[in-house]
Predict the structure.
Amino acid sequence: MTSTAPSPSSAPMRRIETADDLARGAAELARIDPRLAPALALCAPLPLRRKPDGFATLLEAIVGQQVSTASAAAICGRLRAAGLDAAAPIRAATDEDLRACGLSRPKMRYVRSLAEADPDWAALRHAPAEDVTRILTALPGIGPWTAETYAMFALGHEDVFAPGDLALQEGARLLLDLPARPGAREMRAIAEGWSPWRAVAARLLWAYYARAKGREGTL
C-alpha cells in the first residue's frame, strides 16, 4: 500500500512566496549557469504564478486536463456555483450533479478519488517535493506533471521541475541551442545543474518559450 503520509524531514525548506524570493532565485540561477543570464534579463520579471494550496487547486488541475482553457474555466465555474469545489460536497454529489457541471465519466472518477483520499493538505505544505509527488501521483488522474506543478505553484517549492513538460523541453532547446528537443530523461539531467533553483529555471523556460513562439506569430 502506498503511504499517504509525508516522510519526516529535518532539512529546512525555502519557499518562493514573493516576487522578491523569485528575483533572488533568478540572480542565483544566473550565477550558477551564466548561459541563462541573457534570457533572465529578457524575461524579467518572471511570473510568480502562486496559487492557494488544497483541494480546489488540484480539482482545477484535473478538470483542465485535455480540454481548452475556456472549457476548463467554464466547468470550474459551474462546479463552484454548485458548491462542488470541496471534498465533502463531491463525496455527497451524484453522478448527475457532476455531469451537469460538464465532467466526463473518467474525470468524475478522478475527482471522487481525490475527494475520498482528501490528503492531509497541511502536512503536504511542510513535506519535501518528492513526498508531495509520491502522495499525489498515487491518486487516479494525477500524473507527475500535475504533482510537480502543484509543488511548484501551490506550495512554493524552489527546487522542483517538470521535465516531461513539452514547453520546458522546447524552451531549453531554443535557449541552450540544442540540436533537438530533449526528452524527459535528458531534461531532468539538464535541470539537475540548476538545483537548488529548478522552479525558477522552469518559470524562465516557460517565459522564454512564450516569447519565442510570440515572435514566430504562432500564439
Summary: The chain has a mean pLDDT of 92. The domain at 19-48+160-215 is CATH 1.10.1670.40 (Endonuclease Iii, domain 2). The CA atoms of residues 6 and 131 lie 6 Å apart.
